Amino acid sequence: MSNNVLPTVARIAEGGGNHESLNPLVTGGCAFLILLLLLYVTTRFNRDR
């Protein structure tokens, strides 16, 4: 990379973009619900009996 590219990339990375940050509570809650759904599907359709 040339000497002009690295400061430009660093400046863009610090900006953060034009979107709101995701709420960690919503993200964690959705991940928890998805994991519960996967657990239910795994235990409901277990045919190893």
Percentage of β-strand residues? under 5%
The whole-number mean of residue pLDDT values reads 80
Q: Assign a percent range to the helix content.
A: 55-70%
DSSP E strands, number? 0
Computed Rg: 21 Å
Tally of separate helices: 2
- Please provide the ordered H/E string of secondary-structure elements: HH
Q: Provide the structure class.
A: mainly alpha
**Which regions contain 5 or more consecutive residues with pLDDT less than 50?**
none
Biggest beta-sheet profile: none
Shape: elongated
User: What is the first-to-last residue Cα distance?
Assistant: 59 Å
Question: Layout of SSEs?
Answer:
Elements: H1 5-15, H2 24-44
Tell me what you see in this structure:
There is one protein chain. By secondary structure, this protein is an all-alpha fold. It has a domain at 21-49. The protein is 65% helix and 0% strand. It has helices spanning 5-15, 24-44. The longest helix has 21 residues, at 24-44. It is elongated and about 65 Å long. The relative contact order is 0.07. The mean pLDDT is 80.
In short:
This protein is mainly α and 49 residues long. It is built from two helices and no strands.
